[in-house]
């Protein structure tokens, strides 16, 4: 499993993965204290996307992205 370097690339790929099959996609968010890094992982068992950051400014981007995904999850649009 490799990490995607750019946040923009990860965000686009993760949203595309979710929209392709919303019932199969899952994600995890893990903070690694020894490294001071936050690791995000999206998978549908066929494709695995990972992003890692140590930059605090990325937290706001991640929060915005997760809020957007939650809106997709609760919307009634199919």
From TrEMBL:
Q: Which UniProt keywords apply?
A: Cytoplasm, Ribonucleoprotein, RNA-binding, Signal recognition particle
| Any one cellular-component term (Gene Ontology) | signal recognition particle, endoplasmic reticulum targeting
- GO process annotations (BP): negative regulation of translational elongation; SRP-dependent cotranslational protein targeting to membrane
Q: Where in the cell is it found?
A: Cytoplasm
Residue ranges of every copy of the SRP9 domain listed in the record: 4-73
Q: Which domain of life is it from?
A: Eukaryota
Task: Report the leader peptide range.
Answer: none
Q: Which Gene3D superfamilies match?
A: Signal recognition particle alu RNA binding heterodimer, srp9/1
Q: Name one Pfam family in it.
A: SRP9-21
Query: Which GO terms fall under molecular function for this chain's record?
Result: 7S RNA binding
Entry annotated with the keyword Ribonucleoprotein:
yes
Cytoplasm recorded as keyword: yes
The protein's job, in short, is: Component of the signal recognition particle (SRP) complex, a ribonucleoprotein complex that mediates the cotranslational targeting of secretory and membrane proteins to the endoplasmic reticulum (ER). SRP9 together with SRP14 and the Alu portion of the SRP RNA, constitutes the elongation arrest domain of SRP. The complex of SRP9 and SRP14 is required for SRP RNA binding.
Q: Which family does it belong to?
A: Belongs to the SRP9 family.
Q: Could you identify this protein by its name? A: Signal recognition particle 9 kDa protein
* Upper lineage: Eukaryota, Metazoa, Ecdysozoa, Arthropoda, Crustacea
């Amino acid at each position: 499993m490799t990490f995607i370097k750019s946040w923009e690339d990860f965000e686009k790929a993760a949203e595309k993965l979710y929209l392709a099959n919303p019932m199969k996609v899952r994600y995890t968010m893990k903070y690694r204290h020894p490294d001071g890094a936050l690791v995000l992982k999206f998978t549908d068992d066929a494709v695995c996307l990972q992003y890692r950051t140590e930059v605090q400014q990325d937290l706001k981007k991640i929060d915005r992205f997760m809020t957007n995904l939650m809106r997709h999850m609760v919307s009634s649009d199919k």
